[in-house]
């Protein structure tokens, strides 16, 4: 149980020491250091001094967003049609979800806002390809793999084998689901460090899964809620339910900003700054444990800086905890074909029409992490935050 592996390695002339134990992982070097608690997910990064904040990880990425499948049947457990929606859950008329998206025949209900546009005709990443990729990063500063799967975590028969392999090599597997069976919940509790449950039409499906995951022993169970004009009422409804104690076992609710991509491109709109602000202030007043994705950092910083009702000390705390976009700096994404992109939203956009093949590369550092295309991205992303210390989205400027 006290197995501890210390490894020394060098990247681009910089020396690093990596210590990996069953309970924690840490990296030490002159300018880049971190501590990661594998049980609680606590993570702290610093540079030359504890006050320094490194601009990127020179030793490779910390978080890998790995697409394991593009096959998804959406929410099928309890598909709600217009007639079946209980009165108190109805979406108000002015924000009604688009009607052409009604549940199609059979038991297949693709989500209207799926930015990946996943459906039944997708592909799976094989265990062999996953292993090839993770093994290429022999200096494993990687702390977590966030698997991108289907609503039920059932499309890819190799998914749990990949998660188990993560554990074997000292990396924590995480996942987002929305419609999992009791059997899958047990398997997730056995292997995952954290699980996020997406909140869709039927809030009770989400709340029940959160409760069961927590009863199964997971302490890091979050709700992911898409923050858009059309789903704003769901966000408000969920935070009110949390305040009333109707979501036992929940760690936090995380709001994900809308990126106009895939099926979310045409039928969904971003919330106004005023709506963003009132949701945040409501959560603050009601002591809701909540967070935003890093794509929301720009709005969040503006709000916290400008809002007079937030006390100075609390402002400072919020600003310190705000992590702007880290894609290509500390985290990255691979699609089901093993191609690298800074994040899943950048795939096939602008200069990232084509990714870099992690699966077929010879040298992770030369061919991916320090590839000129990635270096160029990284410099521009770092520069975008020079003025106000908050990096901006380079791909969807409208969210900044
Ligand atoms: S949003 Fe998630 S659950 Fe819905 S179709 Fe896409 S991948 Fe599946
Ligand atoms: S590049 Fe844009 S969409 Fe991707 S993680 Fe960063 S802010 Fe979000």
Please explain how this structure is put together.
The protein is of the alpha/beta class and 400 residues long. 28% of the residues lie in helices and 19% in strands. It contains eleven helices and 15 strands. Strands 12-11-10-9-8-7-6-13-14-15 form a ten-stranded mixed β-sheet. Strands 1-2-3-4-5 form a five-stranded antiparallel β-sheet, with no helix packed on it. Strand 2 and strand 3 form a beta hairpin. Helix 1 packs parallel to helix 2. It binds iron/sulfur cluster (2 copies).
The total strand number stands at 15
Strand order of the largest sheet: 12-11-10-9-8-7-6-13-14-15
Average pLDDT metric: 91
CATH topology of the largest domain: TIM Barrel
Query: Which band does the percent of strand residues land in?
Result: 15-25%
What bound compounds does this protein have? iron/sulfur cluster
* Integer count of domains: 2
SS content category: alpha/beta
Q: State the oligomer.
A: single chain
Uncertain residue segments: 79-105
Under CATH at level 1, the class of the largest domain stands as Alpha Beta
CATH evolutionary superfamily of the largest domain = Aldolase class I
Largest pleated sheet: 10 strands, mixed
Strand/helix succession? EEEEEEHEHEHEHEHEHHEHHEEEHH
Radius of gyration: 21 Å
Number of helices: 11
- Helix fraction, binned, reads 25-40%
Quick gist of this model?
This protein has 11 helices and 15 strands.
Please describe the topology of this protein.
Elements: E1 5-11, E2 14-20, E3 24-28, E4 33-37, E5 43-46, E6 63-67, H1 127-136, E7 144-148, H2 159-168, E8 172-177, H3 182-191, E9 194-198, H4 203-215, E10 220-227, H5 232-243, E11 252-257, H6 264-267, H7 273-285, E12 290-292, H8 297-306, H9 312-321, E13 331-334, E14 339-341, E15 356-357, H10 364-369, H11 372-383
Parallel strand pairs: 6-7, 6-13, 7-8, 8-9, 9-10, 10-11, 11-12
Antiparallel strand pairs: 1-2, 2-3, 3-4, 4-5, 13-14, 14-15
Bound molecules: iron/sulfur cluster (2 copies).
